Amino acid sequence: MAAATPKAPMIVGCASHSCMQIYVASAAKLAGVPGHVFIPKRNRLTEASEYASSMGAIIHLVAPAWMNVLRSRARDFAKQFPKVVRWSPRLALKDAMEQCANLPPDVKRVVVPTGSGLTAAGVLAGLALARKRPLVIAIAVSRLADEQKIMKLAAETVGLSTGKLFNHYLPNFCLKYASSKYGQAVEGYLPDGTPLDPYYAAKALPYVQPGDCLWLPGLRPLSAMPEPMRSYKWEGFK
After folding, report:
1. Which of 169, 171, 112 is nearest to 145 (CA)?
2. Residue 220: half-sphere exposure toward Cβ, Cα within 13 Å
3. Which terminus of the chain, N or C, has fewer Cβ atoms within 10 Å?
4. Higher local confidence (pLDDT), 17 or 52
5. Which helix (H) or strand (E) holds 162?
6. DSSP assignment, residue 193?
7. Domain residue spans in the chain?
């Protein structure tokens, strides 16, 4: 996305615990462009916001903290620049879709932690294109995800990839909401001790059964995690 608009700044309006600010801050630093993060005003920055700030992103605190206000402020701020990096949901879907080809054939269920539903839609579309039909269970960490919208986006993505929307059928799908609140961190670890993202993947762990595939959408930097998860030391593959 940055390559499509070189030298343009990156701007995002997001929740206090959102990984998006980490992605934007890191990508902006790599591209050598300004990164601007609009988040709700609070007495203390979250670990994610502190990390974004340490990466050089400029933090804009917004009140009232409604998402439509955050995004409006970010859009208004972006108007002062000739060009800005544009977020592309289709490109974000692409990685998830391609990874579906690696799913072992004996997997019967795929458990996918998701925020807005974008990752879940990518997994559904990728499995349909790969002719694989395990049950997909999306564990939403916020109320932004909607089952019908996820299925519609997945079907549209399959149609754009094939030109034949109804010749590919999506796997069976259901959406469940995590019991914890969006901003609540939950500790979770893989069998080798690797920590799961406390705001996303760890919340899906209670739904995983033997033989399932737990879809890991990503892992925020350890320094952006709450204690005691920061003390983890990766020792490489064994």
Report:
1. 112
2. 29
3. C
4. 52
5. helix 147-162
6. S
7. 10-78, 89-224
Q: In whole angstroms, give the CA distance from residue 158 to residue 90.
A: 11
198-216 pLDDT, tens digit per residue, is: 989 999 999 999 999 999 9
Answer whether the bond into residue 228 is a cis peptide, omega within 30°. Answer: yes
- Determine the Cα–Cα distance for residues 222 and 213; give it in Å rounded to an integer: 24
Q: How far apart (Å, rounded) are the C-alpha atoms in residues 63 and 70?
A: 8
107 contacts 137 by C-beta, under 8 angstroms? no
Classify domain 89-224 by CATH architecture: 3-Layer(aba) Sandwich (3.40)
pLDDT at site 39? 95
CA distance 110 to 175: 12
What is the per-residue burial (b if ≥16 Cβ within 10 Å, else e) of 111-148?
bbbbbbbbbbbbbbbbbbbbebebebbbbbbbeebeee
Structure tokens at 159: 């149609």
CATH of region 10-78, choose from 3.40.50.720, 3.40.50.1100, 3.40.640.10, 3.30.200.20: 3.40.50.1100
Same fold: 10-78 with 89-224:
yes
Per-residue tokens: 125: 């579309």
Number of H helices and E strands in the chain, helices first, is 7, 7
Interval 69-89 mean pLDDT: 93
Cα–Cα distance, 2 to 32 (Å, whole number): 10
Contact 32, 25 (CB under 8 A): no
Amino acid at 162: T
At position 176, the amino acid (one-letter code) is: K
pTM value > 0.85: no
